[in-house]
Amino acid sequence: xxxxxxxxxxxxxxxxxxxxxxxxxxxxxxxxxxxxxxxxxxxxxxxxxxxxxxxxxxxxxxxxxxxxxxxxxxxxxxxxxxxxxxxxxxxxxxxxxxxxxxxxxxxxxxxxxxxxxxxxxxxxxxxxxxxxxxxxxxxxxxxxxxxxxxxxxxxxxxxxxxxxxxxxxxxxxxxxxxxxxxxxxxxxxxxxxxxxxxxxxxxxxxxxxxxxxxxxxxxxxxxxxxxxxxxxxxxxxxxxxx
Length: 242
Ligand SMILES: Nc1ncnc2c1ncn2[C@@H]1O[C@H](COP(=O)(O)OP(=O)(O)OP(=O)(O)O)[C@@H](O)[C@H]1O
Known about the structure:
single chain; 242 residues; alpha/beta; six-stranded mixed β-sheet; three-stranded antiparallel β-sheet; 7 helices; 24% strand; binds adenosine-5'-triphosphate; AAA+_ATPase; transport; ECF_ABC_transporter_ATP-bd; ABC_transpr_CbiO/EcfA_su
């Protein structure tokens, strides 16, 4: 089993468009499975982007095994993968082969080695026939699998999953969930579905840009569910953040 990376966030604050979106985020964790829950607009995706080094905080700090992923992009590229909710926001190349090759080439792999690694990854998922396929001919679920393969090829220590099942049917979702369970990498999984986080080592409940609760899934999720059920009884959508 791979060593779990240490994630340390200290008094982190982030402002976007003049509004404080994350504040007072302090964490020091070394867990294999970290879940993040919270209401719409609470700051989960923003936190995922900060953890991945895609956005630098305005105050405080973030370290992954002592590395600042926003400053040291090369180190971040080798250590962290992020799977977005919508694969169309992630995919940049017209064919599967090109999309899967890009990260490996960025990491410094040669052409022949890259082609071999891509072929092996496609075979691992019984998708050798996708190699030359235009991405535009794939469904959302198929595109999501391409994105996941691209991440796995780069062998990160940590994979951030930002609502990876949105728009996927229940069968694909079940298959992906089982696959995630088997991954040796540490996972940070953002979801609206607490069932996805059963058995997780740690869950953060983010509320209005702050950590409202932090602890084992067994202790945090029941309280979160109770809160959400109560909130769902109201008929006032004006509390939708934003
Ligand atoms: N680029 C941006 N510029 C300005 N405000 C932003 C930007 N991105 C997000 N926000 C605001 O930050 C807050 C948190 O958004 P975020 O997408 O992180 O929430 P979330 O918890 O992931 O929501 P959801 O569950 O609906 O996906 C929201 O109020 C949102 O409007």
